[in-house]
Design goal:
It is built from 12 helices and 21 strands. With about 425 residues, it is α/β, with parallel strands linked by helices. It folds into 2 domains: about 5-215, Carbamate kinase; about 290-430, VC0802-like (2-Layer Sandwich), CATH 3.30.2130.10. Strand 4 and strand 5 (about 155) form a beta hairpin. The longest helix is centred in the first third of the chain and has 22 residues, at about 110-130. It is globular and about 65 Å long. The two termini are about 35 Å apart. Residues about 425-435 have low confidence and may be disordered.
Length: about 425
């Protein structure tokens, strides 16, 4: 019997009863002899839990939407309606305790409240697999000793392999959850289940980790922006890490370095088209020479000041909201500018902008990613020409040699990306695809 295969299913793959049944079919056809599953909450449930948490922060008890959602999925699967009652009652108690707690203590309940999505999903999936004749056991990741807080985002104990091998049937492990430094339950943030899957795969010496998504792999650009984007069937960890760092929504960026260090191949597969080839990441025989793709961020705010105020601008980085990420600086003539990803549009409308600082929404970034592209003068010229007329600005970032980035007006992003894509040489690709990159 060969090494295990880890299959990670996100919320979109677990949206309702029919989706859970489809997961069972995928496990039977693609899970190999020793599948290990990592699951997110059912689609939309984390948002429901966040709403329940926010309501409790404000002193209101909201529980029914989560209960109704899970009871509906159980009914769709023909499973007993009380299968999740222990966890649902626990959630109700936690929310009641939170509402009754002093206001300053309510935030400490956050991770506990959010944990119920994955905990209930793992139990639903295990029950559904059992109805197919596949013995399965739900497992809470924190019971395996997975810990948050290392520079790589997640660490697994040496005992994890032995613990997993002792589980009856197929382990269905909660993604997104771990222990913090104090040994308390903690969450891993958006796409944190990717970290769980790679952490488990690395500890088990897995054959590969499969990420089952709505798309059938990576593309040379986001097809929503560039319809003629072409599928990338194989590439290296560093290439994907750079794409992710420049804005492509692919995998959690912190999971790529541990996969590279462990020599753990990753696959991106489509749960609605499981027969599709997908993308294989980390094959040592794959040449990255000439492989290039576009990445972008669509909601960027430009914060600028006169050059003598550059120190204040740099200090501003420390006070940015958690949802905002500084992307790079640009100094030109008598002006310094900081570009910040601002997905919620909070910066430009902030009442406390700071003296001498100008906030301008409506910007975007566009990057060419590829091995050595940062040293390619022709690629730099193509990027500048491809975004002409868009107030284009090159800026410094931590791109190194494997990407070049410009900031440009968001209204010109689509035209610039399509024009630039036509000039890119994208090797190792197939025909145009709907895969998002």
């Amino acid at each position: 019997m060969g090494p295990p295969r880890v299959l990670k299913f996100g919320g979109a793959a677990l949206g309702d009863g029919a989706a859970v049944e489809r997961v069972g079919s995928i496990v039977q056809a693609w899970g190999g002899d020793r599948p290990v599953l990592v699951v997110s909450a059912h689609g939309g449930v984390t948002a429901q839990l966040q709403q329940a948490f926010q309501a409790a922060l404000e002193g209101h008890f909201v529980w029914d939407p989560v209960r109704i959602r899970h009871r509906t999925i159980l009914r769709q699967l023909g499973l007993a309606g009380d299968s999740l009652d222990r966890l649902l009652v626990e959630l109700r108690v936690v929310l009641r305790q939170m509402v009754a707690a002093p206001l300053e203590d309510r935030w400490r309940f956050r991770d506990h409240v959010l944990s119920f999505g994955e905990r209930m999903s793992a139990r639903v999936v295990a029950l559904a697999l059992g109805r197919r004749g596949l013995a399965a056991t739900p497992v809470d990741a924190f019971d395996l000793g997975l810990r948050r807080g290392s520079p790589r985002g997640l660490t697994a104990p040496r005992s994890l392999g032995k613990a997993v091998s002792g589980i009856t049937g197929i382990p269905v492990v909660t993604g997104f959850l771990a222990l913090d430094e104090a040994g308390d339950l903690a969450t891993l943030g958006p796409n944190g289940s990717d970290l769980t899957a790679v952490g488990i795969g690395s500890a088990l010496g897995a054959e590969c980790v499969q990420f089952w998504k709505e798309v059938d792999g990576l593309s040379s650009a986001d097809p929503a922006l560039v319809p003629e984007a072409r599928s990338i069937r194989s590439c290296g960890w560093n290439f994907v890490r750079e794409l992710t760092a420049r804005g492509a929504v692919i995998l959690h960026p912190a999971c790529l370095e541990p996969a590279r260090e462990a020599g753990l191949p990753l696959e991106i597969r489509c749960f609605t088209r499981p027969e599709a080839e997908g993308t294989r990441i980390g094959l040592p025989s794959v040449s990255m020479a000439g492989l290039r793709a576009l990445a972008h961020r669509g909601r960027v705010t430009r914060i600028s000041t006169a050059l003598h105020g550059a120190d204040e601008l740099a200090a501003r980085i420390e006070s940015l909201p958690r949802s905002c990420e500084p992307l790079g600086m640009q100094v030109e003539r008598e002006e310094a500018a900081l570009y910040v990803e601002d997905p919620e549009g909070r910066l430009a409308c902030s009442p406390a902008r700071g003296a001498g600082l100008r906030f301008e929404a409506g910007w975007a970034t566009l990057s060419i990613v590829g091995s050595g592209v940062g040293r390619d003068r022709a690629a730099r010229a193509a990027l500048l020409a491809g975004s002409r007329g868009a107030r284009t600005r090159f800026f410094r970032s931590e791109s190194g040699d494997d990407s070049i980035t410009v900031a440009l007006l968001a209204g010109c992003l689509m035209e610039s990306a399509r024009r630039l894509h036509r000039e890119l040489l994208v090797m190792g690709t197939s025909e145009p695809s709907g895969a998002a990159g």
